[in-house]
Amino acid sequence: MTGQVQGKVALVTGGASGIGAACAELLAREGASVAVTDIDELRGPELVAGINKAGHRAVFLHQDVTSEARWVEVVTEVEKRFGRLDILVSNAGIGISVPSITDMSLEDWRRQTAINLDGVFLSVKHCLPAMRRSGGGGSIIMVSSLAGLRGAPGLSGYCATKGGVRLFAKAIAMECASVGDGIRVNSVHPGIIDTPIWGKIPTEAAGRGQNAPIDPEERAKLATPLARAGHASEIAQGVLFLASDASSYVTGTELVIDGGMNAGGAVRRPVGS
User: Fold this and answer.
1) Residue 248, phi then psi, degrees to nearest 5
2) Which of 15, 133, 142, 253 has minimal Cβ neighbours within 10 Å of its Cβ?
3) Are the C-beta atoms of residues 243 and 5 closer than 8 Å to each other?
4) Side by side, which strands form the sheet with 33-38?
5) Who wins on pLDDT, 230 or 141?
6) Pick the residue with more confidence: 67 or 194?
7) Domain span including residue 168
């Protein structure tokens, strides 16, 4: 099936790399015009140039998702360029790991919360009116995490933000349903996905402000029933489903894409045993 979001306009935050980039590329291939926003002014334009070179339509807009003033400008620019907004993928986020919550600074707590939670709030506050102006409904997809469904040692602050995103999505889904605007709202919960974020998680062991040497593939072999890390493209397929009319009866729920981690543990046995 092709053209699943043909003629629609999508905005993807944190779209310069990883899951955001995979979502932007797939939505564009499936017919959407895509506004990619990010603070990365190197990879963002490169990604958009590749999308446009492939014959699709995309634009890059520099954005710090914690700036409300910038949100006003971004939404205005999207409507000016494309005339409407149908899909919001609120994906921008960071992860900060510490040995214990007692080691976490208030500065880091607030920075993570500002990006992961305030940024999602602002995305909805400013994109929802534009989506309603477009008419015909739409889809808001908030990228949470498996850490938004279960606790993880060393990631309590991250869990707090991603759990907040999960319930925020449900509340906005009910708000949209109550006014009958046809806009569906869901959250996506990736497990261990092989993306650049693993090299950006500062930990105490690596030294403050340094990158932690975390190998997602090795971690996934031990932690996931499918014994491998997921790929950003696999999360993008889930986002495409929620963005398209294929999910027209889906709202207020979670799409978990985690290789089976949330389901439980599995003891792998040799084939044929």
Assistant:
1) -60, -15
2) 133
3) yes
4) 57-62, 33-38, 9-13, 87-90, 138-143, 183-190, 254-257
5) 141
6) 67
7) 9-257
In this structure, is residue 173 part of a structural domain? yes
pLDDT tens-digit readout, 122-133 = 999 999 999 999
Res 260 pLDDT > 50: yes
Q: CATH number of the domain that 127 lies in?
A: 3.40.50.720
Q: Is residue 273 domain-resident?
A: no
Residue 272 within any structural domain of the chain: no
Which pair of structure tokens corresponds to residue 235? 């999360």
Coil/strand/helix, residue 255: strand
Give strand pairing partners of 139.
87, 184
Domain count, the chain: 1
Question: Does 269 map to a domain?
Answer: no
The answer to whether residue 210 scores a pLDDT higher than 50 is no
Residue 213 has pLDDT above 70, yes or no: no
Tell me the catalytic residues. Answer: 158
Q: Provide the token pair at 84.
A: 């409407």
Burial grade of 182 (CB within 10 A; 0-12, 13-18, 19 or more): middle
Which residues neighbour 185 within 8 Å (Cβ) at sequence distance 6 or greater?
139, 140, 141, 142, 169, 170, 172, 173, 176, 251, 252
Whether the per-residue pLDDT at 234 is higher than 60: the answer is yes
Taking CA atoms, 87 is separated from 53, 117, 258, in Å, by 22, 19, 23
Number of helices (H) and strands (E) in the chain: give both, helices first. Answer: 8, 7
pLDDT of residue 204: 47
CA distances from 212 to 116, 145, 203 (A): 20, 19, 6
